[in-house]
Structure prediction request, 268 residues.
Amino acid sequence: MQIQPLEPLGAVVSGVDVGPLQADVVAGLRAALAEHGVVVLPDQHVDDDAFLAFLQAFGPLTFTTGETPVEGYPDLNVISNVGRVEPPRSTFHVDSSYLSTPPAYTALRAVEIPSQGGETVFTDQYRALETLPADLRERVEGRTVRHVVTGIDPGLLGPDDETEAEHPVVRPHPLTGRPALFLTTPKRCAAVSGLADDEAAELVGELYAHATDEAHALAHRWAPGDVVMWDNACVLHRGDHSVVVGDRVMHRGMVRDHGPDAADGVAR
Prediction:
């Protein structure tokens, strides 16, 4: 496995074929994800069988209620602009942060690439925390945010589906313990511990503006055959649909947790 770091985050990984993986390769990718946040696996040109086997090598998968599954692959979902009058909307977020155990890893494989636009943008939440102004860092120490579900038809939710969860604002990585800022799109940040609603909204707005600053961002321009995986514990992401020309179709899968080496007692 060869790892070529990108700036300000992410890495291109070569020498790995997407499909069933040996344990040592999974461990190497977990370590790369914990350090770099995002790994890009170019020139894979795989089908959903291989993509699914790749994901399952990391552990049990999870699926977001309300998403459109890939036909014949209920653990995968489709992200597509095909047939839409308005482009999809995407703001920086963590996938399903309203779960007590948010998905550890998310991966996309390129099915159709538009002729223009359609990048996926990531921001480094290690760096966001490390560069947080001292007054903001002091205000968030020891606080938690209540993350709530949005954008899902309540009729699709079952009695056992989680709709909210409390997570620390400064969250240690489950594998390394390295702290990162842990936020999501502000409309899902319903409350901050110890603060009135107006104070909480103001604080979340300040944190989110800092967390999504371009100085912390990597825009991945998709190429045919790309598979990209990221660690939800240390990056935010969004799809840039603003100037897309042509069809953009991705298949997505999510791994439930960080695996057997995750630290006991650390929110995953």
